Amino acid sequence: MASTNLNEEFLMEVGRPLSEGVNLAPCSHFRIGGDADYFFEAGTEEELVRAILFARENDLRHRVIGGGHNLLFDDRGYRGLILHNAVTGIRLQGPSRIHAASGSTLEELMTFCRDQELGGLEFLVGIPGTIGGAVYGNAGAFDQDIGQVLREARILTLSGEVVRVDADFFAFSYRHSALKKGGYILLEAVLEGYARDRVHIQEQLSGYRKKRENRHPPWEVACAGSYFKNPVLPSGEKVPAAFLLDQIGAKGMTVGGAAVFSGHANFIINQDRANSEQVRELASRLKARVKDRFAVDLEEEVIFLPAGP
Ligand SMILES: Cc1cc2nc3c(=O)[nH]c(=O)nc-3n(C[C@H](O)[C@H](O)[C@H](O)COP(=O)(O)OP(=O)(O)OC[C@H]3O[C@@H](n4cnc5c(N)ncnc54)[C@H](O)[C@@H]3O)c2cc1C
């Protein structure tokens, strides 16, 4: 379909226009990426669902993104439609069930839980991004992950229906959920907290924040979190990727403007106008060295979105 027709059809179906040729670098914390052919920011669930259905019906390649904190966009951009999920809203049902729209941020969730005096989700503090991104990759920290507190959800299925599913549907494991199989879109998550007073919640949030500050790059450093998942050794033991990367002298390695963060070997950072090729080349050198030395295959946690199919 010609671009003008596509735009007109989209406007008719969704109610607001698409943008064309939008640079993706500001949409990812890596600050890397070329232009998306089409871009749309959905502010309501209805807009999000309609936009996805429109893309599916028109065979338009598309991807829903949240905060872009786990993504590496391609320097050549994205052939298709990037849908930025800005559908927010968090409410309480009953004494402890938290209904969070998938574009709400974990930071908004933390504020909500503290104000409502609901504990149990504090471990999520400081993880940047949206509920959708967090459920997709089963985000977590301090040996806990979001899958442990999710009770049910509303999703958009492959056949275009909005259905309610329980936690089993997601088959959560380390940095994995069924959403990764593709096609399913999280619309709302229902999470469970427990009654806890504000002072204790605040104390725990501060404690976790402090620990994170010691481990992670400062906020202004452009990156997408831990680059690799923690691997399981042939012996069955799970080992931090950063430990292996330290042994192979990762810190200080660079390719162009991409560098391994000096404070944590599992963070690749955009130090100086890096491009996606440089980040990926650095990652592949790190993988090769770890493979040579330990016979372990590191697997990327950061998701690379190629420009074309
Ligand atoms: C400084 C820093 C620290 C970090 N620390 C941690 C940490 O401690 N623990 C951790 O687990 N992660 C961490 N991360 C990674 C990142 O914050 C998480 O992966 C986060 O959950 C990503 O959310 P997002 O909204 O930014 O997702 P995005 O990066 O926008 O998207 C990630 C994936 O989710 C998919 N997606 C997004 N929304 C939906 C939806 N509604 N339905 C279906 N799929 C969807 C996207 O298509 C994409 O494939 C860190 C990142 C940074 C930059």
Describe, in plain words, how this protein is organized in 3D.
With 309 residues, the chain is an alpha+beta fold. It has three domains: 3-85, Uridine Diphospho-n-acetylenolpyruvylglucosamine Reductase, domain 2 (2-Layer Sandwich); 90-215, Uridine Diphospho-n-acetylenolpyruvylglucosamine Reductase, domain 3 (2-Layer Sandwich); 241-305, Uridine Diphospho-n-acetylenolpyruvylglucosamine Reductase, domain 1 (Alpha-Beta Complex). Helix content is 28%, strand content 25%. The protein is built from seven helices and 18 strands. The strands form six sheets. A five-stranded antiparallel beta sheet has the order 6-7-13-11-12. It is globular and about 55 Å long. The two termini are 18 Å apart. 40% of the residues are buried. It binds flavin-adenine dinucleotide (FAD).
Outline the secondary-structure elements.
Blueprint lengths: L2 H12 L4 E5 L11 E8 L2 H13 L4 E4 L5 E3 L4 E8 L4 E4 L3 E5 L4 H11 L1 E2 L11 H6 L3 E2 L2 E2 L4 E7 L5 E5 L18 E8 L1 E2 L2 H18 L25 H7 L6 E2 L2 E3 L7 E3 L5 H19 L8 E3 L4
Parallel strand pairs: 2-5, 3-5, 4-18
Antiparallel strand pairs: 1-2, 6-7, 7-13, 8-14, 9-10, 11-12, 11-13, 15-16, 16-17
The site of flavin-adenine dinucleotide has 32 residues, from strand 3, helix 4, strand 9 and strand 13.
Salient structural properties:
3 domains, binds flavin-adenine dinucleotide, Uridine Diphospho-n-acetylenolpyruvylglucosamine Reductase, domain 2, 4-stranded mixed beta sheet, single chain, alpha+beta, 18 strands, 309 residues, Uridine Diphospho-n-acetylenolpyruvylglucosamine Reductase, domain 3, Uridine Diphospho-n-acetylenolpyruvylglucosamine Reductase, domain 1, 5-stranded antiparallel beta sheet
